[in-house]
From TrEMBL:
Comp. bias (Low complexity): 32-48
Protein name, UniProt field: Uncharacterized protein
Region of interest (Disordered), ranges: 1-49
Species name: Emericellopsis cladophorae
Compositional bias (Basic and acidic residues): 7-20
Phylogenetic placement of the source organism: Eukaryota, Fungi, Dikarya, Ascomycota, Pezizomycotina
Amino acid sequence: MGLVERLSTKYPDEKSEGHLTSDGQGPPPYSPASSADLSAPSSLSSAPGTTLKLPQSFWLDYRWHSSTSFIGAEKGERDFAVTVPSRMNCFAHRAITLRDGSAKDSPALVSVKGQKGSLGRRSVISLPSMGEEDPGQDIVGAFGPGGSSKGFDVTLENGTVEHFEWRRSMGDEVKNLASGCQGWKLVRMDSPYTLAGGKEDFPPGYTSDGREVVAAAAYPKMFRNSPRFEFLGSGARGEMGVRFELVAAISFVRMYEIAMEQASAGSASS
């Protein structure tokens, strides 16, 4: 029995401490946009402080022994399905797909798979077309410790190309998301909100080099509980559009798969 099977048997799902707003309340109820909204640029406008397609904060209900996992704004909810054809090897060239609904055959929103010839070090994220004038896009990036970089470029709905980078973190963004966890923060490298100056000048939500943190993800040590993800800053306000939200979410799922696979391989070798 591998690490994943042992852990899922030994450690049943436990409730983690969630992130609360400054007034002590949780996030507002989540209501996802419909598939039709993705193909209409005019529908991509958003009130301040809201995401466009995905929940601002969500849990990944990872099903160890199933090809279908779920994303939900609250723990145990099934707002979106995440399908994986095979759990035997997450580096295989088979796509992990985030779907627009809880059914395993719901329309695909975005997918990710290992890039051929990269031995799992690089991944390809595929975004389908969002309209007649949008051919979709493939994004190559490296997620996880094995890659030379954890960055990727996204062409946003307004046509600009921005660079993002996942960084391992145990900082406040991760600690506030779920207690006792390790994780990552997603940094907007080309943000108009980039700050200059020394580290002491940076407010919460910025890295030590003055870059804006637009998302964070936390997962418990030994995979004892469900991982959690949250959009932050301009990522939580819907400023960068649906494409950014989808790419951020699926890259997080990919990194979690890689972390799980590497932990399992390390356990087997010992």
